Amino acid sequence: MSGIRLYDYELSVNCYKQRLLLSILGLDYERVPVDFFPGREHQGDTFRRINPLGHIPVLDDNGYVVWDATAISIYLATGYDDSGRWYPVADPRRLGRVASWMAFAEGTTNTASAARLHDTLGYDFDIDACRRGARDLFRHLDRHLWLGELEGRRWLVDGDHPTIADLAVFPDAMLAPQGGVSLTPYPAIRRWTDRVKDIPGFVVMAGIYPH
Amino acid sequence: MNLPPVDYAANRGWYPVAASADAVAGHVVAGRLWGSDLVIWRDDNGAVNVWPDRCLHRGVRLSLGTNTGTELVCRYHGWRYATVAGSCTYIPAHPDNAPAQSMCTSTLPVHEYAGLVWTTLDGAPGSVAVGTSPEPFPVEHDVNDHAGSAAVPLWAMTVNVGTGTLEVELDGLRKALTKLVGAEVAVVLQPVDPDAVVVRPLAVGEAAPAVDVSALDAAAELLSAFARRIESGAGANGDYDGNSRRSATEARGYGQVSPHGRTVSTGLLDVEVVAKWETADGIVAFEFLPVEGAPPLPAVQPGAHIDVHMTADLLRPYSLTNGPGDTAYRIGVKREPDSRGGSAAMHDFVTVGDRLTISHPRNTFPLRRDADHTLLIAGGIGVTPLLAMAQTLAATGAGFELHYFVRGPGHVAFADVIQTLGPHAVVHHGLDPAGTGEELASLLAEPGFGRQVYACGPGPMLDAIRATARSAGWPDDTVHFEYFQNPNDLDLDSTFEIALSRTARTFTVPAGETILDVLRTNGVAVEASCEQGACGTCVVPLLDGRADHQDVYLSDTQKATQDRIAVCVSRAETERLVLEL
Predict the structure, then answer these.
(1) DSSP secondary-structure letter at B316?
(2) Nearest residue of A to residue B75, measured between CA atoms
(3) How many Cα atoms sit within 13 Å of B516 on the Cβ side?
(4) Given B18, B236, B240, which is nearest A128 (Cβ)?
(5) Which residues does chain B have within 8 Å of residue A146's beta carbon, measured at their own beta carbons?
(6) Segment A150-197, tens digit of pLDDT
(7) Helix, strand or coil for residue B143?
(8) Would you call A180 and B244 a contact, using CB atoms and an 8 Å cutoff?
(9) Which residues make Cβ contacts (< 8 Å) with residue A159, sequence separation at least 6?
(10) How far apart are CA B514 and CA B569, in angstroms?
(11) For residue A186, what is the nearest residue in chain B, using CA coordinates?
């Protein structure tokens, strides 16, 4: 089997981030469904031979296997985007910002999206701590985006083109209401998610509607 | 500056629900006030709507929907709601039906002032005069001394007050912000839940204060720190959870929301003539707005008409030419040479500033919006409903053509609107009946899947379209007509019985009287308008018996189905008809 394969679960935010990037970059790929829930296939022995950590997503590009959402996004954006706009390796200052917001996305995944796993799939997390953490992060995000609009910045990182950081934070924000975290207090986040939805190649997932 | 105490026991007065800059074109804002979720959106004319955040159909949040610039479209089943009036204008699952006027969301009063969008849940009048402040203004009065533009909203933030004491802290916050941004700062509060409030600082001044971005950033940081301090004292129950909390306001019922947009009746509207102009030879156009103090006019569906009440017993139907998003009504009136008083009175006596009584808009010529291509064919003054349709289709980017047959260039009404349709509109001048017939034959040559035809004009032209479309193979439910009048000679000679299924009453309709006459005589209310079988207003369900259809409203297929009847002209072929009344 040649080409790109994505070990994927429809309802996973981290898998969706890769589907979004693959679609925006116009790449053909094969989806390999993993029975994340209720089968917990990603924790099984077979899947651990693909990713020893037992996490999805995993990308297999002609036999080269890379796991972790951030790692896959960096690999795709560096290897398949000739314009270098999605992951600006030639611009250290912007690249540093992208890395910071990728770390921010780890935070929203571990709070807002964890709350969602708690509420929708019954995961045993400290739900109050997850929601509190998510609100702290969204408050900061709203402020960053609000100020950005005043400065003419449309995306998380300065520059006139979105980066993989936008795609990394976007699904955690969009699906936060499924974890009991309302987006009503963050109007600037809502405007930014509308802009992300307008990116050519944007695709939806369950719970994320078109603009 | 002293702030009034945050009074959670009452929800009176005007409160901000968003920054004006939050409500940008093409965008939908979710807001919350006193436990009620609100949807806030700006139309392409700049008007802001504040409605309860739920679709009338299935209760889904309208804030998930799409702002088309003139309508808000629910994400779930595509119900479309008109700006300002809040009426449902289209239901995709029923493309052939006109939504009832009673399908209208509550619309809350809106006022933009000091860079914020304000509303009230008190059921106050629909608007506040521009340039005045909403009362009571929940900050000290000197903010009111400044014009609306002289305030710059800083970053606003929801603070979970919990059981903390916000009032004590706010003055310190205000002073610190004033020092930071170098301009007087007022703090406006938006209560969202019993334990949460949006803190909205405003920089105010004689002119709008210039605040640089670094100061705005510093002010935002200060506000964040303020919130952290308040919330750390608020304990674990201080979390804001807009999704699941049942607030005191909710417990009192959603009916707290101002219902002034819901006063839907089939009664009459008082309007003022705000413009009158000659739009073509012998055709005068009028524009109407509600009289001062009255709520906005109900939204217009394409194809709808109003009855203008000339005198107590003289009313005339006129189609509305409105495009989507229009909040004034526009009609065109052709002077009829044998006018019995309607068109002549409109031409000669009605002037700008006059008040007229009109009916609510009624739509007996509804436009499907799911066609791949729509052919609009107008003859003379029959262009008016088709202009409304053309503008609706143009706004959605649907494929359509408007063919407008007129006697000569001077007879083109609403040329300015025609102009905006660009290549979609074709005007045919001065064709004789034979030439018109040839043109119609070529227009109607290709029936096809997903194609619809709408025609309005003189009777002979519509008859020609009906015959041409039939011979070209158009299914008759794809060709829609609006007649000015019924050209048929009516036959009122039969005598028969009608039975009313709901009220279990039976009457005899004698020769010379109509079903409608008999119903009225016996106190059965049926809405009717033209009373000559042209407009379709009086069509009622027919449960049993065969009707002798004499109207020109129902299609041949509808007539053959024998499941409805226009009671103003049609009669019975059988001895008895059962009507669902």
Answers:
(1) E
(2) A209
(3) 20
(4) B236
(5) 155, 220
(6) 999 999 999 999 999 999 999 999 999 999 999 999 999 999 999 999
(7) helix
(8) yes
(9) A88, A94
(10) 6
(11) B157
Residue B254's pLDDT is what? Answer: 27
Tokens of B43: 């139309």
pLDDT tens digits along A40-70: 999 999 999 999 999 999 999 999 999 999 9
State both tokens at B540: 């009622």
> Do A185 and B66 lie within an 8 Å CB cutoff?
no
A209 chain-B contacts, CB cut-off 8 A: 64, 75
**CB-CB neighbours of B490 under 10 Å:** 15
∠ CA(A42), CA(A48), CA(A51), 5° rounding?
A: 90
CB B181 within 8 A of CB B201: no
In whole angstroms, what is the distance from residue A203 CA to residue A22 CA? 10
CB atoms within 10 A of CB A123: 14
Q: For residue A57, is the peptide bond before it cis, meaning its omega torsion is within 30 degrees of 0?
A: yes
What length does chain A have? Answer: 211
Helix (H, G, I), strand (E, B) or coil at B541: strand
Q: Which residues of chain B have pLDDT under 70?
A: 1-12, 122-150, 163-168, 234-266, 312-313, 339-340
B525 by Cβ neighbours in 10 Å (0-12 / 13-18 / 19+) ranks as: exposed
ipTM for the assembly = 0.91
What SS3 state is found at B537?
A: coil
pLDDT (0 to 100) of residue B529: 80
What does the alpha-carbon distance between residue B157 and residue B154 come to, in Å, rounded to a whole number? 10
pTM of the model: 0.77
* Torsion region of A159: left, alpha or beta (phi above 0 gives left; psi -120 to 50 gives alpha): left
Calpha distance B231→B574 (Å, rounded): 78
Chain B nearest CA to A129, separation (Å): 10
Q: Residue B122's pLDDT is what?
A: 67
In chain B, whose CA is at the least distance from the CA of A148? B213
Chain A positions in Cβ-Cβ contact with residue B158 (cut-off 8 Å): 185
> What is the tens place of the pLDDT at every residue in B440-489?
999 999 888 889 999 999 999 999 999 999 999 998 889 999 998 888 89
Could you give the C-alpha distances from B237 to A129, A182, B5, B161, in angstroms and in order?
Answer: 12, 16, 22, 9
Long-range contacts of A73-81 (CB under 8 A, 24+ apart): A73/A17, A73/A18, A73/A21, A73/A102, A73/A164, A73/A167, A73/A168, A74/A164, A76/A18, A76/A21, A76/A22, A76/A25, A76/A27, A77/A21, A77/A25, A77/A163, A77/A164, A80/A25, A80/A27, A81/A25
